[in-house]
Fold this sequence. Notes:
- The protein contains 5 helices and 5 strands, in the order H-E-H-E-H-E-H-E-E-H.
- The protein has helices at residues 2-12, 41-49, 65-80, 96-101, 128-139; strands spanning 35-37, 55-60, 86-91, 109-114, 117-123.
- Strand 2 (55-60), helix 3 and strand 3 (86-91) form a beta-alpha-beta unit.
Amino acid sequence: xxxxxxxxxxxxxPTRGPLASHGxxxxxxxxxxxxFNVQDGSDFQDRVVNSPKPVVVDFHAQxxxxxxxxxxxxxxLVAKLEGKVLMAxxxxxxxxxxxxxYEVSAVPTVLAMKNGDIVDKFVGxxxxxxxxxxxxxxxxx
Length: 141
């Protein structure tokens, strides 16, 4: 009987909508987020190539140690710029086609894009001062 009640309670939770996470609603407004994961080639075209704002593109992989250090460091600095620049994260294992198209031969590779054009690039890990200079150059500060 107790198992049946537990199962009924579990099944009474909505599986869709804002309450699907056991009653806790949360917003994920894309307008306020400056960092996003690229979903596919079309998403990359829409949100990176056609972006009115400069975009930093972080080509990374889950198995890459330096990527795990660089990614959060870069995200923190992009967030500090409060929407002046966006950051697109591209997992090369999920999006091999984009990695080939943008000639990514090692990870991490970071591109700076403005109006759909690559204006700067680096490969490997950088310290915060170097990343700040990279971002300031991109936004023209």
